[in-house]
Design brief:
The chain has about 240 residues and is of the alpha/beta class. Helices cover about 35% and strands about 25% of the residues. Strand 7, helix 7 and strand 8 form a beta-alpha-beta unit. Helix 3 packs parallel to helix 6. The radius of gyration is 17 Å and the shape is globular. The protein starts with a strand and ends with a helix.
Amino acid sequence: MPDIEIKKLCAFYGKAQALSDLDLSASEGEIIAIIGANGAGKSTLLDGIMGLVTCTGSVRVGGDEMLGKSSSATVAKGIGYAPERFNLFPYMSVKANLMVGAHTAREDVQTNLETVYRLFPRLAERKNQETATQSGGERQMVSLGRALMTSPSILLVDEPTIGLAPKVCLEISEILRRLSTEMGLTVVVTEQNANFALSLAERIYVLEGGKITSSGTADELTKDDALAQSYFGTKH
């Protein structure tokens, strides 16, 4: 059974339809990526999983239907979310921002905090620094760390490399890979940076205009000349 399974997912903003009949799944410990241009519907997909936008279809986590449930119920089911918008409190310290994510897993606070500091030593060094004064890469680390404070089994990560330097992108990639291999987390990443997704994910879905147009392993997608030229800048 997939750790998370989405079938026929449609999303709406009022009467406007943003996603159409999306099917995707991820197994326990797997990393999948959803790639697409700005406006393709990537953030809407993750918001839909979290119950933040009106959806129809099915979102099953561990076999249980989550569509229609509250965001807090989704978090309690084991889904952590690091949105591209960060949603950090800029004039609160790093540690205070991390603790915002701890309210659903109070019995694991110290363990989770130690895990976050182990994964992101920079945050431990700067735990008293206001996030408003941090770099984009550091704020991304805080966002990921806060999601980990909820004790998730599934981690949703929206556009983790946007605006970041290549060196920082490599750091983020290594952290996500460790979360999968060392901690067994299922990781769902959305990305405009197709080459980042190609190097990280075991399977990739291509999202265009609110619809999944292609899917497969990195090797399979790069063998499609038109797709490789459009997204990866290469031709088989």
